[in-house]
Write a structure and sequence with these properties.
Layout (H helix, E strand, L loop, with lengths): L9 E6 L3 H14 L5 E8 L4 H15 L6 H6 L3 H15 L4 E8 L5 H11 L4 E4 L5 H5 L1
Parallel strand pairs: 1-2, 1-4, 2-3
InterPro entries: Rossmann-like_a/b/a_fold, UspA
Protein name: UspA domain-containing protein
Pfam family, one: Usp
Length: 141
């Protein structure tokens, strides 16, 4: 890859807590980023997902009984901030001179592709990296 040494790029990696997202981040760190680039970890939340609804329900029910342990709502499901902070730390270890920024947004009834493209225009992104789920048969071919 040939890049201009005087111009930094804005590189966006779309992240979530999946192995495909981790692979996309690993690819970005090892193949796409150079020292002066800015890395944006972009997470798209889905407020209507069952996981968020269930975590909210557990959090509310544990708040109503103060003697109940809070480990279910905090540990079993984790938070968005947990995996985002872990990804940021991994980036800082792998490439300490890269500026890493976290951006989060909700889908707001739109499809993911529209949200990604809209945010990439707003942030003037030069390169978008997205993980991909593949079946074993297509990975072999």
């Amino acid at each position: 890859m040939v890049t201009s040494p005087s111009r930094s790029r804005n590189v966006m990696v779309v992240v979530d807590p999946t192995p495909q997202s981790a692979a996309a981040l690993q690819y970005a760190l090892s193949h796409a980023l150079v020292e002066q680039d800015k890395l944006i970890l972009f997470y798209i939340g889905n407020p209507s997902s069952w996981k968020n609804a269930l975590a909210t329900f557990i959090r509310k029910s544990s708040n109503s009984s103060s003697s109940a342990p809070n480990s279910i709502s905090e540990g079993a499901f984790g938070t968005d901030a947990d995996f985002l902070d872990q990804m940021r730390r991994a980036c800082e270890v792998a490439q300490p001179k890269i500026n890493v920024k976290i951006e989060k947004t909700d889908m707001d009834g739109k499809d993911k592709a529209s949200v990604i493209l809209s945010k990439s225009k707003d942030l003037r992104i030069d390169l978008i990296i997205i993980g991909q789920k593949r079946s074993l048969s297509s990975a072999i071919l």
